[in-house]
Amino acid sequence: MKKLLCLAVVFSAGLLQAEAQQQTAKKTLTHDVYDSWNGLSGDKISHNGKFVLYNINPQEGDGDLYIRSMVNNATAKYNRGSKASFSNDSRFAVFQIKPEHQKVRALKLKKKKGDDLPKDSLAIVSLEDMRVVKVPRVQSYKLPKEGSGWLAYHLEKPLPEKKEAKKDTTAAGAEKTGEKKSTLKKNKDAKGTDLVLRNLSTGQEHRFPRVVDYIFSEQGNMLYFVKDELDSLHQAGVFAFSTSELKEMPIDTGLVSYKGISTDKAGNQLAYVATADTLKADIRYFSLNYWNTKSRESQVLADTVAKGMPQDWMVSEHGSLIFSEDGKRLFFGTFPRPVRYEKDTTQLEEDKVSLDIWTYKDPLIQPMQLKQNDRTLKRSFLAMYDLRGGKMQQLATLEMPDVYLDAYKTGDVALGVSDEKYKITIGYDTPTRKDAYLIDLKKGTTKQVLTESRGNPRLSPMGKYVYWYEPMDSSWHAMSTKGGANINLTKKVGVPFYEEDFDMPMLPDDYGFGGWVENDSHLLVYDKHDIWKLDPTGKKAAVNLTDTYGRQHNLRLRYEKLDPEQKFIPANAELYLSGFNIGTKADGYYKEYVSKEAKPEQLISSDHAYTSLSKAKDNNLVTFRRGDFRNYNDLYTSDLSFANVQQLTDANPQAAEYKWGTVELVNWKSTDGIPLQGLLYKPENFDANKKYPMLVYFYERSSDGIHNHRVPAPSASTINIPLFVSNDYLVFVPDIVYQNGYPGESAMDCIIPGVQMLVQQGFVDDRNMALQGQSWGGYQIAYMVTRTHLFKAAMAGAPVSNMTSAYGGIRWGTGLSRQFQYERTQSRIGGTLWEKPMQFIENSPLFFADRVQTPLLIMHNDNDGAVPWYQGIEYFMALRRLNKPVWMLVYNGEEHNLMQRKNRKDLSVRMSQFFDHYLKGAPAPKWMEQGVPSVIKGKDYGLELVREPEVAGEAKE
Predict the structure, then answer these.
(1) Quick check: 157 and 193 in contact, CB under 8 A?
(2) DSSP code at position 1
(3) Less Cβ crowding at N or C end of the chain, within 10 Å?
(4) What does the alpha-carbon distance between residue 467 and residue 21 come to, in Å, rounded to a whole number?
(5) 871 contacts 860 by C-beta, under 8 angstroms
(6) Residue 56 CA to chain centroid, in angstroms?
(7) Is the predicted pLDDT of residue 435 greater than 70, yes or no?
(8) Residue 172: which residues within 8 A CB-CB, separation 6 or more?
(9) Of 646, 565, 709, the residue nearest 68 (C-alpha)
């Protein structure tokens, strides 16, 4: 027995030693692993549930498409496959094949572009035997939405022919010499290429030249397409091809442009807009045209002189053409005829004045107008044509530009919504006020039903009710479209439907809307925890559909819509719900019934994040994504019971080779005694007896994301947590709650006690701690370093430093005034600059720059559309003048968060160098020690290390 015990001890010791060696052998994440880390995307289930497809792509380079059989688990891989779809009969998969990444890159280095670069190919896979048909140089493809058996694909321009000997003009098929040259002159601007229609079963193909646009009818019984003009013999036009008759039919030819082709649900009616005006015309006048398979004659339904067209209005070329579900109505866009300005041919270009004129009467300030110019020029106003009665009706107007229809577009009422009267207050009055109107589609009359609502009124699917959440009284409302009263549906419920944890100085928003039950009988809305079923007539009391189960178990229950085409929830439907535990952060899925009030049935719940639940159309197979901090969000499958979960993908098996770390939920109280939560990320093989440097990253509240997987990737603005944890940093992510008027102070009151709580546990090296954050997080850091010397270094991305100048600034990405942000939203001052001047100053780091002792790295890019670039400059210049250690990274042409991968890689390296130098005593890089003079910009990036390592010093008290 003693020998056996000794052997067991030795065996156990061997296992522990082997495990320790395995852990020691793990690699540390570095910046050069990014490109090989994969992402999962494009997952789809065939309608019969027998096949699943998905893409696994590296962050940079060539990825793969996988098609997996759920019958025998066989998986086929296709290099560089993308944009994949299943046919509706589940017999075929179709996808495009991208050119090789390295080949394209090599050609771009040779300055090749456009048609000189390789193009996508098309692949058609027969799922029965996995045979593949490939077609080169395909720019797009389409499958019928509901029908099957047909595929249309649009080819790229053919490769230019190699120069050959002069052709024999007497050969068969050569051009006739007797034809006039003018009729043979080709249109150099022609963009049309071949469109191919393929029978998926037989492989038979039909080819149509010079095509620029094409659509299938939903059932695939008709293919409609637009041809470009080649010459006077080959004119532009709209054509149809019947897939049952295998016959091509010309619909309309001879005009210059045809656009917006759209078909009804049955595929027997076609609408399009067309014009005879050339592209060089100052104003192009389009007409609305119509064709059907019965008469097979094209006719103009509306133009500038049509009855019902407002005076000086015209058909829009940019409006969507939409048939009602029953095919009896056609909706299209109109707009006021633009003012025509004669060109002044007596004035030189350099003599013309260029200026913007700002006036206090403008509904929108000039920057917003300039940002919206393209949208304004392409704006269209909804109009309707009654195809049975032969009558046009203008619905939207300049005063009421937004009109909403019922889900089927067959009802007799539309809803108009307008904020035109209140646009001048955009920028400081939020939520924006709106008026609402009911439009009678039979009588053509309009009646105002809401005034100055702060909500977003919408129509129910059948058009029986107007419904909205009203922030002014924190309640859900409904109103019958047949002249009913405004009914408050939740006033007497007794639980809040506004966000209970909302902490901005404005009216809180609602928790969300779940959908309408069949025949507009009920609507589903959320409180913090549960789902409520409301009677829109107000006659029946509100029902807690989930029977307070969410509130009892601290869950957040929400409806998962499994049918993306669903217009309403069936009256006897089983509801599948996501269920997130607000306290423990466990996640999962539950089942409930629309028809009865009952406690939900838990199907699956665990310490993971669950997302992207999807169901096969004709089968109970579902797929979903599941992951946590250590494990990538891979694709899983099950039936609706979730009893037998199967993992389908392992997108990043290499992750097991690297030191990753762990994450845990931590709790503490703010200076004011408010309970708080946060996330603490610890290195692999964490030793509580050691002391680790710690980075503190924050924004507002992040603890609900404890199970979010974070991929090693170059940073757009913030630290990559797995990379720093793998390099033996602790990372602390605290939640923050705010008091109106004191955003900077609130951050201090929440973050500092959390840091002190962790320091007291003994494993944090309190001499080597740093802060990092972006935007709102960057502001809080800029503020905190004026108030505390607890941190050895800090990095602030795009920080506001001077609230007094930022308040009057512009968010250049939208052209919106920044005033709203300080008065009502994130900056939380709660008043104007002249009402609360001292709070603007007290919360502005710039005014206290002389107190900063923490080395600070700023990133603020010169094309930042959210926080004006000068905010970073103001802070940098103040700290520079005070001889404080400060650096500012300005990525040219970049936005608020970095968009270009090359710049993200660069920032990631520089942040690591900055924190490694201050928190680990690593050598400083050249860019920190010597800078990078502008004369060597782009030639020397200053990334090499120049200063010898030194012992990490203590942070100042």
Answers:
(1) yes
(2) -
(3) N
(4) 63
(5) yes
(6) 20
(7) yes
(8) none
(9) 646
Q: Are 865 and 813 in contact (CB under 8 A)?
A: yes
CA distance 193 to 210: 4
What residues contact 346, with CB distance under 8 A and at least 6 apart? none
What does the DSSP 8-state code read for residue 813? T
pLDDT tens, 226-241? 999 887 778 899 999 9
Query: Using an 8 Å Cβ cutoff, are 700 and 681 in contact?
Result: no
pLDDT per residue over 695-739, tens digit each? 999 999 999 999 999 999 999 999 999 999 999 999 999 999 999
Percent of the chain with pLDDT over 70: 93
The H or E element that residue 745 is part of is helix 743-759
Q: For residue 250, which phi and psi values (nearest 5 degrees)?
A: -75, 135
pLDDT at 947: 64
Query: Which residues fall within 8 angstroms of residue 742, CB to CB, at 6 or more apart?
Result: 828, 839, 843
> Do β-strands 574-581 and 555-559 pair in parallel, antiparallel, or remain unpaired?
antiparallel
SS3 call for 577? strand
| Helical pair 743-759 and 776-784, crossing angle rounded to 10 deg | 70
Report helix, strand and coil shares of the chain as percent, to nearest 5: 20, 35, 50
H or E element in which residue 906 lies: helix 901-920
Residues, the chain: 957
What are the tokens at 480? 């019958």
Q: How far is 339 from 334, CA to CA, in rounded Å?
A: 15
pLDDT digits (tens, 9 = 90+) for 500-545: 999 999 999 999 999 999 999 999 999 999 999 999 999 999 999 9
- The CA distances from residue 504 to 430, 825, 831, in Å, are 12, 5, 12
Per the DSSP assignment, residues forming a β-bridge with 602 are: 590
Three-state SS at 445: coil
> For residues 530 and 532, what is the distance between their CA atoms, to the nearest angstrom?
7
3-class SS of residue 606: strand
- What is the average pLDDT across 288-298? 95
The token duo for 119 is: 């193009």
Are 343 and 417 in contact, with CB atoms under 8 Å apart? no
User: What predicted TM-score, i.e. pTM, was given to this entire model?
Assistant: 0.91
Please say if the pLDDT value at position 644 is more than 60.
yes
pLDDT at position 341 is 77
The Cβ of residue 936 has, within 10 Å, a number of other Cβ atoms equal to 10
Dist. CA 59–CA 652, nearest whole Å: 12
Q: Which two tokens stand for residue 871?
A: 């905010």
Distances (CA, A) of 945 to 44, 909, 926, 930: 48, 12, 6, 11
Handedness of CA 229, 256, 273, 298 (dihedral sign): negative
| Structure-model confidence comparison of residues 155 and 950, the more confident one | 155
What is the pLDDT confidence band of residue 175, given thresholds at 50, 70 and 90? very low
Q: In whole angstroms, give the CA distance from residue 447 to residue 524.
A: 27
Cβ partners under 8 Å of residue 11, min gap 6: none
Answer yes or no: is pLDDT of 756 > 50.
yes
Provide the token pair at 885.
Answer: 């250690």
Strand pairing partners for 257?
Answer: 275
Q: Which two tokens stand for residue 617?
A: 């159309």
Between the two ends of the chain, the Cα-to-Cα distance in Å is 61
Tokens 């082997």 label which residue?
18
Can you say whether residue 169 is alpha, beta or left, with left for phi > 0 and alpha for psi between -120 and 50 degrees? alpha
The kind and range of the H/E element at 587 are: strand 587-593
What tokens does 936 get? 């060597």
Distance CA 665, CA 660 (A): 17
Cα separations in angstroms, 459 against 415, 705, 889? 7, 34, 49
Q: What residue type is assigned to position 469 of the chain? A: Y
pLDDT value at residue 596: 85
Buried b (16+ CB within 10 A) or exposed e, 256-292: ebbbbbbbbbbbbbbbbbbbeeeeeeeeeebbbbbbb
pLDDT in tens, 734-746: 999 999 999 999 9
Distance CA 729, CA 108 (A): 40
